[in-house]
């Protein structure tokens, strides 16, 4: 993503993550779905997001997420992802290493919570929007 060079540098320098973390700047929708379905987790370190579509896509496919602690992410996914400060490099490292373990308790706990994730739908969005318009 945009302005993520520091995060990518951290991931590239970490020997224990080699082979586990994939940074792919450009890919088709079908490639994205394939990568996500085979991922241990989506990593979403961000300082600002307007929405966070990758988080919805990952959770919709049953892929756990490690994400920055942003209000929009909590609105979308409640307490499902593991949330971290985007500047907490050690926290990210520990969380990523944990998710790489075959029986990671953090990852297993998130998989259980994901059963209650309901992806946002356009119909619900427009229902809410029309309700706001009626109030105006």
Write the CATH architecture name.
Answer: 3-Layer(aba) Sandwich
Cα end-to-end separation: 37 Å
Overall average pLDDT: 90
Order of helices and strands: HHEHEHEHHH
Helical run tally = 7
Radius of gyration: 16 Å
Question: Tally of extended strands?
Answer: 3
User: Which band does the percent of strand residues land in?
Assistant: 5-15%
Shape: globular
- The level 1 CATH classification is Alpha Beta
Described by strand count, sense and barrel closure, the largest sheet is: 3 strands, parallel
Per the CATH scheme, the topology name is Rossmann fold
Query: In total, how many domains does the architecture comprise?
Result: 1
Question: Which descriptors apply to this entry?
Answer:
mainly alpha; Rossmann fold; single chain; globular; 50% helix; 136 residues
Q: What is the gist of this entry?
A:
This protein is mainly alpha-helical.
Characterization of the model:
By secondary structure, the chain is mainly alpha-helical. It has one domain: 3-Layer(aba) Sandwich (Rossmann fold), CATH 3.40.50.2000. 50% of the residues lie in helices and 7% in strands. The protein is built from 7 helices and 3 strands; from the N terminus they run ααβαβαβααα. The protein has a 3-stranded parallel sheet, with helices on both faces. α4 links the parallel β2 and β3. The longest helix is centred in the last third of the chain and has 14 residues. The radius of gyration is 16 Å and the shape is globular. The N and C termini lie far apart (37 Å). The relative contact order is 0.13. The mean pLDDT is 90.
């Amino acid at each position: 993503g945009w302005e993520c060079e520091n995060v990518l540098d951290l991931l590239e320098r970490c020997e224990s993550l080699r082979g586990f973390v994939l940074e792919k700047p450009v890919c088709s929708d079908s490639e994205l779905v394939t990568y996500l379905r085979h991922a241990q987790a989506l990593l979403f370190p961000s300082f600002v997001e307007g929405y966070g579509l990758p988080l919805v896509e990952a959770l919709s496919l049953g892929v756990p997420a490690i994400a920055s602690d942003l209000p929009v992410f909590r609105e979308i996914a409640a307490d499902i992802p593991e949330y971290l400060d985007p500047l907490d490099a050690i926290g990210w490292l520990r969380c990523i290493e944990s998710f790489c373990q075959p029986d990671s308790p953090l990852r297993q706990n998130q998989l259980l919570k994901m059963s209650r994730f309901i992806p946002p739908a356009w119909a619900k969005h427009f229902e809410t929007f029309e309700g706001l318009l009626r109030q105006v």
